[in-house]
Design goal:
Elements (H helix, E strand, L loop, with lengths): L9 H14 L16 H9 L8 E4 L4 H8 L6 H7 L1 H6 L2 H5 L2 E2 L3 E2 L2 E2 L8 E6 H6 L8 H13 L11 E3 L9 H6 L7 E3 L5 E3 L5 H14 L15 H10 L2 E7 L8 H9 L5 E4 L21 E4 L5 H12 L1 H9 L6 E4 L2 E4 L3 H7 L20 H13 L1 H4 L2 E2 L7 H22 L7 H42 L5
Parallel strand pairs: 6-9
Antiparallel strand pairs: 1-11, 2-3, 4-11, 5-9, 5-10, 7-8, 7-14, 12-13
Length: 482
């Protein structure tokens, strides 16, 4: 599914040559390009239905068919091969990430493919506006709110008009992370409580306080009203808002700090003296602060089917995971397709030329997010690394479920989430009073919330027991081979 899906590309030939050289034998790559997302699972299931159509290595997402493949014996345990040939893979992925791909039988039938950075978003704030208004970098939620108000009402761009907003972003809760996380809640996940229980974040009482604050800021004109529209689910629309130079703060992608980022380029073109900086997460009333953590499980994975010799397939994947090989098929050849000067990555080809070369065709195959991702400047790489620590507090609270089979959640969650979104955004925009939150909590139970909570508690207990067994397995089967 990745890249331009260019057949017989330069990237394919370069990767074949690299694999042939590294493995000491001829290696032929025959990419199977998948259709668009709407037909993805249908095509994958069709490919996997017969041995003569199964690829040697399959990339896929969280399809329920995976468990059927394991039961049918058409995907292979990769543990012995990882021990012998997969050092790059097992060194790259964390212990917790591998847990989500481990089978309780004591085997690993899948390898993580694309796992994002530990945290890939950050609180961004206009430094030039802070300087213009003689304001300090905020460290608490109260200070942050006052800065946002000043950015809205005190003419930070000096044009004599009140045409700026303190905060903007997309129509997702991630854009409101500085507020929810200051209270230690995430409305889209189950949260560990102090007594050891877990609760769906949307019904935690702290959410009501956050919604009340957001409603006040919305009514004051501090929050960009475009955030409340589904049209702002489009990244390009948010990029355009960012580039306009009329917003004081976002919770947005760390990648914006790469000089070559398209949104960053547009912003500097329109606002040559403008400057955003990344700040640490602001602390709430109890001193809690955190950035948003990535679940660590990844969103896609690789399986080696019964049509491949598993040792050879792991050698191929391990070679693709090596930094130099990853850079080759992702960015091309240094000096030919890009240049590095003072740690800055500069393409010497156009995006269209890169597509014709097939760069990106093998994206999401052990997609490295460390220094091998050379498009990140050293400063951005360092910022990503700092997010490991700043996102840890919420990582310790959020429950990431390992189970693929969650029938109760699947039965009720769509309706509950729809109701939550309607109520929460209506509260924020003032269409409903803050007390509507209490009505939502009551309705949550009526809509299957009690059954969801019971299922979640059972899965969490089972998962905790599995992790104890996994730790022993990891110490024996992975740690000695790193």
């Amino acid at each position: 599914m990745a890249g331009p899906k260019t057949p017989n590309s330069w990237a394919q030939e370069a990767l074949e040559a690299e694999l042939t050289k590294r493995l000491g034998r001829d290696v032929s790559i025959e990419p199977v390009f998948l259709p668009d997302w709407s037909e993805l699972n249908t095509k994958i299931n069709l490919l996997m239905s017969a041995k003569d159509t199964r690829p040697n290595i399959l990339w896929t997402g969280e399809t329920r068919e995976y468990l059927k493949w394991v039961d049918a014996g058409i995907v292979q345990d990769v543990t012995p091969s990882l021990q012998q040939y997969g050092q790059e893979i097992i060194n790259y992925y964390t212990k917790d990430t591998l847990f989500y791909h481990w089978d309780p039988s004591g085997k690993m039938y899948r390898i993580p493919a694309d796992v994002p950075e530990a945290s890939y978003m950050t609180t961004m704030i206009r430094k030039d506006w802070l300087d213009q208004l003689n304001l300090d970098v905020p460290t608490t939620l109260d200070e942050y709110v006052e800065v946002l108000r000043a950015f809205t009402h005190n003419d930070p761009d000096g044009n004599g008009k009140q045409d700026t907003y303190g905060l903007s972003g997309d129509n997702y809760y991630r854009s409101l992370i500085p507020f929810f996380y200051a209270y230690g809640v995430d409305v889209e996940n189950f949260i560990r409580q102090d007594d050891g229980s877990i609760i769906f974040g949307s019904v935690m009482p702290e959410v009501k306080e956050v919604l009340g604050l957001l409603q006040t800021l919305y009514q004051e004109g501090v929050i960009d009203p475009r955030m409340a529209t589904s049209a702002n689910s489009n990244d390009q629309m948010v990029n355009d808002i960012y580039a306009s130079g009329k917003i004081g703060s976002f919770y947005r992608f760390v990648d914006y700090f790469n000089p070559g980022n398209s949104a960053a380029l547009s912003f500097k073109k329109l606002n040559p003296n403008g400057e955003y900086i990344a700040i640490d997460p602001v602390a709430g009333p109890n001193g809690f602060a955190s950035d948003q953590p990535d679940p660590g499980i990844g969103w896609c994975y690789l399986v080696i089917t019964d049509t491949a010799e598993v040792d050879s397939a792991v050698q191929v994947l391990n070679t693709m995971a090596e930094p130099e090989t990853f850079k080759l098929f992702t960015f091309g050849r240094e000096g030919e397709h890009y240049e590095m000067k003072d740690g800055i990555f500069t393409p010497t080809i156009t995006p269209d030329e890169g597509n014709k070369l097939g760069l990106g065709n093998f994206g999401w195959y052990i997609q490295r997010k460390d220094a091998a991702n050379v498009k990140n400047t050293p400063e951005v790489t360092q910022l990503f690394e700092s997010k490991i620590e700043t996102s840890q507090p919420m990582r310790d609270r959020i429950v990431v479920f390992k189970a693929l089979d969650r029938p109760v959640w699947d039965k009720y969650s769509a309706d509950i989430n729809k109701e939550r979104d309607q109520v929460f955004w209506s509260i924020i925009t003032g269409k409903l009073p803050v007390s509507a939150f209490d009505e939502f909590v009551a309705k949550y139970e009526q809509m299957g919330g009690k059954e969801i909570d019971a299922e979640a508690a059972g899965l969490f207990e089972k998962q905790s027991q599995e992790y104890e067994a996994y730790e022993a397995w990891y110490s024996e089967h992975i740690e000695p081979y790193k």
